[in-house]
């Protein structure tokens, strides 16, 4: 079966399941309110005359809502990749179809990515909704550099798909997705400055943040869309993001191939 | 007696499943540490490099122990969150496995099945809270006030509300067949309204009025009074009474909704569908 046919088939499955439970779409309107309200009201508790001076010293301006919402949008993509890759495996284990799907003569990476591809489109739609909801709820606005910001975001997401393969290998070994996906996803989001400028963390953590490409995705997007001060010149951030694509894909596909081979040798794909 | 056997059998079965996938233990250790850290570091970011902004927040929150203020809010939220996922989603999980209908056909009280499921989430909530408090004391250096008995009382008064809400959602999920959305609504409402990281009077008046209908708003305040503000049980009696009173109403509502949904799914024959 060709790579594209597998992608198409998996894309359709994913789409059918998504639209089968329409409440999920409605949740998109509610989730940004749920996750961002604690930060929004906490910001209010810190503000004097609508300004948070302390925050300005870290980022260059007082737009903490823009900072949070953009971080939340990027984290939506990170979560989408980790959850859809990790959980598609666990779901198929539970439904008892993983072994039969993997017995077919199709590329395993295409099997995994096909489901994620639809989720990517759905997440993009959701991110637009998040922007609209946050505009009305919290007064979120950005400037006109949207296309430039997308050119930083896209390579970051492509790199993350490679990291997703690594997470899939862990799920295959542990036969459980929840804690693995939850912790890697949250840690990556936190360390890459989803909710706060990375400079507030202790030095050891700042060092880890500086080697994560998502830190530069968050930082460059905020610099472009909110006019906040970036960690380094934007062309350098772009270069780091692009290099990370190769590293993540190399490590991810190597780990996945190794674990898949081991699972086949042991014959444990059907058990969970 | 028969109900007790059912409760124990369900709890034993779930305990075996829990230990079959030991990765949950990583969550128990790591989640209490990293979840409040997001809010703690955000508060540091708002406070600025010289931490001057903390004075503004301290005035609003009424305590200098800002880290303690945040970890208590998030700790209660996590206890509700675990219960919602494990307990609220229990019947749906059985439905997905294809075992719900066969279990339902057994000549036992269906409510006992739900009670048995509650034991595991109770064990997990207790573990999360105990490990959390130890980690906050040792790693974050947060100083807690009050004594063990006061802490246990605060923990116990949260239970009726948590399980009442869990029961309502377990029943509604059985009918609506969608866990994620239901759990997100429950924990989201709590996250927005109950003041897990800020005092509720920062919110607009209409939101404050809504917050007062949730037992967790008073539960979190009582926990803060006892654990960081060195108040006695008597001094926070108002919060304790409202938290447990509203919790009991939630519990009664949960039992009622469970009975209604049980009847409805039997008539429609939709127990095995998902």
UniProtKB/TrEMBL annotation, chain A:
It is found in: Cell membrane; Membrane. It is a multi-pass membrane protein. Its main location: membrane. This is Transport permease protein. One of its GO terms (molecular function) is ABC-type transporter activity. Keywords: Cell membrane, Membrane, Transmembrane, Transmembrane helix, Transport. Belongs to the ABC-2 integral membrane protein family. Residues 23-259 form the ABC transmembrane type-2 domain. One of its GO terms (cellular component) is ATP-binding cassette (ABC) transporter complex. The keyword Transmembrane applies. The chain crosses the membrane at residues 21-41, 64-85, 117-138, 150-173, 200-218, 238-257.
TrEMBL record, chain B:
It is found in: Membrane. It is a multi-pass membrane protein. One of its GO terms (cellular component) is ATP-binding cassette (ABC) transporter complex. PANTHER family: NODULATION PROTEIN J (PTHR43229). It comes from the Bacteria. Residues 27-261 form the ABC transmembrane type-2 domain. This is ABC-2 type transporter. It holds the Pfam family ABC2_membrane_3. InterPro entries: ABC2_TM (IPR013525), ABC2_TM_bact-type (IPR047817), ABC_2_transport (IPR000412), Nod_factor_ABC_transporter (IPR051784). Signal peptide: none annotated. It comes from Caloramator australicus RC3. GO terms for molecular function: ABC-type transporter activity. The chain crosses the membrane at residues 21-46, 66-90, 111-139, 151-176, 188-207, 237-258. Keywords: Membrane, Transmembrane, Transmembrane helix.
